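idk why but the lab printer keeps eating my pages so im just putting this in chat instead. protein + inosine 5'-triphosphate:
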Amino acid sequence: MRPSDSPGRRWISLLLEKGLLLATGNRGKYEEFRRLLPRSVAQKLCFTPELAPMEVEETGTTYAMNAWLKARAWVSASGIPSLADDSGLEVRGLNFAPGIFSARAADGSDEARNRWLLGRMEGRTDRRAAFVAALALSFPDGRTLVCEGECRGTLTDRPLGSGGFGYDPLFVPEGQELTFAQMAPEAKDGLSHRAVALKVLLELLPDGVFA
Ligand code: ITT
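predcted complex ->
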């Protein structure tokens, strides 16, 4: 097989030619991927709610399975390479809850989920937590790359900061003093579970193609 015929090269041509669907309904994730992805791909990144309504049931028991389900559903429906992210917050003192149920921990808004978490943390001294993200990049030929990233830290006792999304106002990454919501977006990008996972994903793709 010539190098130009390798699956990796064909996938990359597809990415550059057709663009990339970001299989998420979460605008916070979309904004982060726009900053994190190489510019050639970020420019062609499509936020799926602007394309078509589609709910993918997250029936998996791991982040990786749920990311795979979301990426496969979108690539099958569109024929366009699709990237999905399944992520969550794992809190030591809560036996690693809410984990894959982080989006479903409480109904409604991010604020409601933050209130729920603070309520569960009342009186607990072990405030260690970690954000985890699994990414799945799926191609029309069925091949799918999956990888995971983690960011450890601790939980505050009240929401701090107005940036980011989700549980960001409650999470201080290891070695830092500010929550993700208090940091500049680029500072979060240097530390986040999503950035760690994406770095691994890009390393799995052939060299230099995103240069
Ligand atoms: P999609 O499934 O459409 O991508 P979602 O928000 O439902 O969107 P998940 O099922 O992966 O996504 O749930 C992730 C949950 O974890 C959700 O409540 C997020 O707010 C939270 N979360 C994930 N990454 C986060 C981050 O970087 N900062 C803050 N909260 C995060």
